[in-house]
Design goal:
With 205 residues, the chain is of the alpha+beta class. It folds into two domains: 53 residues, GTP Cyclohydrolase I, Chain A, domain 1; 129 residues, 2-Layer Sandwich (GTP Cyclohydrolase I, domain 2). The chain is built from eight helices and seven strands, in the order αααββββαβαβαβαα. The strands form two sheets. It has a five-stranded mixed sheet with strand order 5-2-3-6-7, sandwiched between helices. Strands 1-4 form a two-stranded antiparallel sheet. A hairpin with a 5-residue loop joins strand 2 and strand 3. Helix 1 packs across helix 2. The longest helix has 29 residues. The radius of gyration is 21 Å and the shape is elongated.
C-alpha cells in the first residue's frame, strides 16, 4: 500500500481548493445572469472570483479544527473566579438569506482546575461565526464547546447582533438588536453567578 507523503496531501488540498473556487465562480456567474446582469460586463469580469474568495473566507469555520485552534493552550491553576472576555466582535452569515449579521459576543467561565489562553476564546468564537448560522445556534455552540474542552464549573455566553436580513429587507427595522444567551453549569444554577456576569459585561471598560 502506498503511503502518501505530506507534500502530496498539500497538493490534494490545493487541488480541492482550486476546484471548489472554480465551482463557486461558475455559480456566481450564473447568479449574475439570473438577476439580469451580464457577467461579461467590464465591471463584473472579476466579480465571480472576488465573491468566491470572499465566501471561502466568510465560511472558513467549516474547515477549521477546534483542537488545532485551541492548540493545547490549557493551563493548570488554582484560580476559581470568573474569567470574562467581553465585546468580542462577531461577523457571520444568516443561513436563511446569506446576509450578514454582526455585533458583540461576551464569554465568561468559572474554572475548575484549568484556564485557557485568553486569545483562544475570540478564535473559538470565530470558528463558529464563520459559517452559515443562526444566532441562537452560534451562542449555544460556543458555550457547549468551552464546556466540553475546558470542563469549567460553568459557562455563560451572550451575543448582541444586528441582522441585515431584518434591516435591509423584510421588516426593515434599522435599530433592532437580537440578544441571545446560553448559560451552563453554575451560570444556569446560581442566580448570583449569572447576575455578576450580567453586571460585569455592562460595566464600562
Amino acid at each position: 500500500m502506498k503511503v502518501a507523503r505530506p507534500d502530496e496531501f498539500d497538493v490534494a488540498e490545493d487541488r480541492e481548493k482550486t476546484g471548489g473556487a472554480r465551482a463557486l465562480e461558475a455559480a456566481v456567474r450564473e447568479l449574475l445572469r439570473e438577476v439580469g446582469e451580464n457577467p461579461e460586463r467590464e465591471g463584473l469580469l472579476k466579480t465571480p472570483t472576488r465573491v468566491a474568495e470572499s465566501l471561502r473566507f466568510l465560511t472558513r469555520g467549516y474547515r477549521q479544527d477546534i483542537q488545532r485552534v485551541l492548540n493545547g493552550a490549557l493551563y493548570s491553576t488554582p484560580y476559581d473566579e470568573m474569567v470574562i472576555v467581553k465585546d468580542i466582535e462577531i461577523f457571520s452569515l444568516c443561513e436563511h438569506h446569506m446576509l450578514p449579521f454582526f455585533g458583540r459576543c461576551h464569554v465568561a467561565y468559572v474554572p475548575t482546575d484549568k484556564v485557557i489562553g485568553l486569545s483562544k476564546i475570540p478564535r473559538l468564537v470565530d470558528v463558529f461565526a464563520r459559517r452559515l448560522q443562526i444566532q441562537e445556534r452560534l451562542t449555544t455552540q460556543i458555550a457547549e464547546t468551552i464546556m466540553e474542552y475546558i470542563k469549567p464549573q460553568g459557562v455563560g455566553v451572550i451575543i448582541e447582533a444586528k441582522h441585515l436580513c431584518m434591516i435591509m429587507r423584510g421588516v426593515e427595522k434599522q435599530n433592532s438588536v437580537a440578544v441571545t444567551s446560553a448559560m451552563l453549569g453554575v451560570f444556569r444554577d446560581c442566580d448570583q453567578t449569572r447576575a455578576e456576569f450580567l453586571r460585569l459585561i455592562r460595566e464600562k471598560s
